[in-house]
């Protein structure tokens, strides 16, 4: 028999527990019972904070999505040549991901079985689309190569960026550092790995 | 009540069914009962072919690993400058992945709970290490930039390549074509997206 903890949760701290359980068991595989056990409070205490597990999912993926969309409204994403804006957005996307690993992990695993999941998938597609539009603008301005399919390149770019959730764990002073990681992603995608002789600019 | 199908399976065709179920339910979440239902034959018929679900896992991930390691023994991976060999290996890795989507998907999801899973993780690390060694050789020969951390670049490269299993489905004449996909990955990683003015060479 487990002794129920006194409910000192806020919707925010309950969310931290829920996201961990969703990522461990999958959203579909998580019941209110699992959440109640993990949080150490009764199901009715959880219902005191939220309407149910779908509300927790919505809050969690919203946090990841809000972080990503906020990047698009930052001055660095709004001003200057399209190439500078797309590099800025790439760098900041990596940073948001590193700051919000559990939330972005959950977002990336969303499958589309519920209304909230379908909404999250739709928002993800919209974000990818906004970045693809920036890339197209950079092609039109002559700064990105015109011989690469932009839809495919965008998918591959996000494939690389999103793969970080598989192994990146925040660790002060650990390898790689956050800045090094963001720099390397931007370098790889935009400059490539080949030595060109002008890499000191 | 389900009518059991007459057992016309070979170990090979049984493997196809098992890999599908493992990818749908997760290896841990799959029981012999699930495999028996999906194959439409009794559990004892399955035991006639294999010792248990771990043998099926081992056969499945071996198929993916054998495909990947075979690339390293091909002439294109053995001869010439390191940069040409590493580009060759990247292209062929994409091709193996596209040809073996379900098997590579399973390999990438292996977590390390059983001996077979730990063995598979060890083999994956060995493959990544072999590619990282090729990259280092290309840096030493002056063809890859020296200002990028190779361990990190290798992780990001595989992050991009492995992300293909999330969305790529073989489809004759579909978008993107296999060759276009392999070309684009190699271009992105080695040449980058930036227009350089010498892309017609």
From TrEMBL, chains A, B:
InterPro entries to which the protein is assigned, alphabetical: Homeodomain-like_sf, HTH-type_TetR-like_transc_reg, HTH_TetR, KstR2_TetR_C, Tet_transcr_reg_TetR-rel_C_sf
**Pfam families for the chain:** TetR_C_24, TetR_N
Q: Which UniProt keywords apply?
A: DNA-binding, Transcription, Transcription regulation
- List the Gene3D superfamilies hit by this protein, alphabetically: Homeodomain-like, Tetracycline Repressor, domain 2
Q: Which residues form the HTH tetR-type domain?
A: 8-68
GO molecular-function annotation terms? DNA-binding transcription factor activity; transcription cis-regulatory region binding
Q: Which residues bind DNA?
A: 31-50
PANTHER family recorded for this chain?
HTH-TYPE TRANSCRIPTIONAL REGULATOR BETI (PTHR30055:SF234), HTH-TYPE TRANSCRIPTIONAL REGULATOR RUTR (PTHR30055)
In Swiss-Prot or TrEMBL terms, this protein is called: TetR family transcriptional regulator
The organism named in the record is Streptomyces nanshensis
Upper lineage is: Bacteria, Bacillati, Actinomycetota, Actinomycetes, Kitasatosporales
């Amino acid at each position: 028999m487990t002794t129920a903890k006194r409910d000192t949760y806020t919707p925010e701290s309950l969310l931290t527990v829920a996201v961990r359980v969703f990522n461990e068991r999958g959203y579909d595989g998580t019941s209110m019972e699992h959440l109640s056990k993990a949080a150490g409070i009764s199901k009715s205490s959880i219902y005191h904070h939220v309407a149910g597990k779908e509300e927790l999912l919505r809050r969690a993926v919203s946090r990841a999505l809000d972080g990503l969309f906020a990047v698009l409204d930052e001055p660095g994403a709004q001003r200057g040549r399209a190439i500078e804006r797309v590099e800025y957005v790439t760098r900041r996307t990596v940073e948001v991901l590193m700051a919000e690993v559990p939330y972005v992990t959950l977002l990336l695993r969303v499958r589309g079985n519920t209304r909230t999941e379908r909404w999250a998938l739709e928002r993800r597609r919209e974000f990818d689309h906004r970045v693809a539009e920036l890339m197209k603008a950079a092609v039109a301005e002559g700064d990105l190569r015109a011989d690469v399919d932009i839809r495919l390149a965008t998918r591959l770019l996000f494939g690389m960026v999103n793969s970080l959730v598989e192994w990146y764990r925040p660790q002060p002073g650990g390898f790689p550092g956050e800045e090094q990681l963001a720099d390397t992603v931007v370098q790889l995608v935009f400059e490539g790995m080949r030595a060109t002789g002008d890499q000191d600019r």
